[in-house]
Amino acid sequence: MNDAWTGPWLRHLTQLGVNLHAAAPVVSINLDGGSVRSVTVEAAGQPAEVAADYCIAAVPVEVMSRLATDAIRTAAPSLARLDKLETRWMNGIQFYLGKDVPLIPGHVNFVDSPWALTSISQHQF
User: Fold this and answer.
1) Can you give the pTM of this predicted structure?
2) Contact indicator for 119, 101 with CB cutoff of 8 Å
3) How does DSSP classify residue 13?
4) What is the pLDDT of residues 78-92, one digit of tens each?
């Protein structure tokens, strides 16, 4: 993680009263009918059940694919084919410039570039 990107967001969430469970890997997503009831995490080597108003799964697709049980895939059919999703590794580099260099709004994809280059200016966000 990069504190320049995640630090302000995490501070904002904490100020809103969000309880973050850092370094607590998700073991399972627990349903009550077709809705998420809680999430079981591993905290200090022990399983702990965490209930919340909202749960956001911000994990790599291969992790979500492992967590998406048959019951979850039935409750959320959009997750049914996660294991069929094709992914590729990606590397990146960040440049911090002394002045804003405006790009187009959004994300730029250099379609014909030999290494599938993309760029984005964070200043706009």
Assistant:
1) 0.68
2) no
3) H
4) 999 999 998 877 777
